[in-house]
Amino acid sequence: MTDETPVWVADPRIGWRILLTATLPVPSSPDDLAAPLRQLCEAQGWPYAAPVAAAARDLLGDSGPPLLVGVDGADVVLSAHHSAVDGLGLLALLDRLGLGPVTSSARGVGERTSTGGLARTVAQRLGEVAFRPPSGVTPPVRPVADHGDVLVSAEIPGSHRTADLVHAAAQAVVQHEEARGRTARHVAIAIGAARDQQPEAPVRDRSVLLRLRDVERLDRAGVAAALKAAPVQTPPVAARRRPWTPVLDRLTTAGLRVLGPRLGSTMLVSHLGDVTAPAVERLAFHPVTAGGTGLSLGAVGHDSHDGRTVLTLRARASSWNDDGLEQLLEAVISLLVETGRMRP
Fold first, then answer.
1. Which end of the chain has the lower number of beta carbons within 10 A, N or C?
2. d(CA 275, CA 298)
3. DSSP secondary structure string, 244-294?
């Protein structure tokens, strides 16, 4: 007999929680959300934890139930473990907490090829580590903490596609490294996406990962074409539990700990699409800091508020501080604005 329970094996150095911060027109309180959160957890089959007075940075730890809710003035923060919820799932949870309607223009990647079997995928990535490792990103100053994450955000006008974000992120890395006398080679951008959308189904992690290499060599049109053709990355673990899975899990966990900084990507980009949420003033999404540099760029377009996009950067506090991360985000924004001006 084999256990068909999905396996979750991940880099143990980080907290696998993703964050969605919704700013409401008026301040809220934890008590306002207690009843809808309890009902939501019961429907999902999750353990219930009462909402707390907390900001986003207070809800980053890896421990705890699948969903934590914090209230900080007008901000309602949803912190979900990525093994249970993906980015678009956070939008669904916000809706089911009574803060909807919430809809997104984002669509799944549909049926496309994968990078192949587990052995082939691992061999390809190990070859990359050995001969063409992804570019790093040099932190500009000494960090001030040895644990946790740094979160920054900014709001810009207009709607920006995922290809725009990927291109701007890669070029920002190139400029960042050049300013420090380094050359960014083999910039690898991981792109968070979803296989399908099931609005009425229970919320689950339905995410997939695309990945582009040598993005510094591509213009915006080249990035868009590469995204359309990119295969879905095979996860570095067996999809279902088998008799040999515990041994494989231990080996994978150890490998991720040792090779994570070189095996991952230069940056992760995840865009929740243009979101319509009339009851919410602002949305900000922070993806995970997994693998490689631990840098992740999140985006939410606000379709119902005159067309604007909230961008975020998240990084490990052991490598970055607020000022350094804000400088990198400003570079991304500058490149996005420049790209927008060049469009016909």
1. C
2. 13
3. THHHHHHHHHHHHHHHHHHHS-SEEEEEEEEEE-TT-SEEEEE----STT-
Specify the pairing of strand 67-72 against strand 52-53. Answer: parallel
CA distance 260 to 41: 33
Classify 80 as helix, strand or coil.
strand
Dihedral angle, C-alpha 41, 240, 197, 303, nearest 10 °: 70
Pairing of strands 75-81, 17-23: antiparallel
Phi, psi of 44 (to 5 degrees): -85, -15
Whether the Cβ atoms of residue 164 and residue 269 lie closer than 8 Å to each other: no
* CB-based burial, 89-106: b 16+ in 10 Å, e otherwise: bbbbbbbbbebbebbbeb
Task: Note the pTM of the prediction, 2 decimals.
Answer: 0.87
Euclidean distance between CA atoms 252 and 246, whole angstroms:
10
CA distance 1 to 98: 42
Count Cβ atoms below 10 Å from residue 253 Cβ, excluding itself.
Answer: 15
Alpha helix (H) residue ranges in 143-240: 162-178, 220-229
pLDDT by residue (tens digit) across 53-86?
Answer: 999 999 987 778 999 999 999 999 999 999 899 9
